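Researcher: I've been going back and forth with a colleague about how (2Fe-2S)-binding protein might be arranged in three dimensions. Neither of us has a model we trust, so I'd like an independent prediction. The organism is Gordonia lacunae, in case that matters for your notes. Sequence below.
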Amino acid sequence: MNGAAHDVVVDTRTTLLDGLRDRLGIFSPKKGCDHGQCGSCTVLVDGRRIVSCLSFAVAYEGTAIVTAEGLGEGDDLHEMQQAFIDEDAFQCGYCTPGQLCSAVGMLDEAEQGHPSHVTEDLDPSSADDADSLADDEIRERMSGNLCRCAAYPNILAAIRQVADR
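Model: Here is an independent structure prediction for (2Fe-2S)-binding protein. You can compare it with whatever you and your colleague have in mind.
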């Protein structure tokens, strides 16, 4: 969990989200809808983004789980966290941890050549890296993360800032 090993005993019915919040005191993944529809509970598991409210904690024994707190190195922010600050990509902040984890995972998926619903060329040999993502492609890839404050233009700008590096 965020670079540190933890021994946690949980019931087999405990979701990863509840395990993180109730057993480890990690509160950045939020319980929004609790149905996997809003993305506020998004975390990275072995580098892949998942909604933790629909995932059983016992299924992730021995994996590397990263939440928004674990994105940076010590006191240094992750470049996506800094971009969210630079672009004012949050308002109430409730969805921000899930948006951050999803954005980091999404750019990694794009860099690896994973297609989305709006990917024009499905030939992996011709796939460009994440910095060539069109705004519509970023919007599609982030569509599982909702923001009730409608900070979408600023979230897009923050992701674009990182993708263009």
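Researcher: What would you highlight for our discussion?
Model: I'd start with this: The chain has a mean pLDDT of 92. After that, consider the following. The beta strands are 42-45, 48-51, 65-66.
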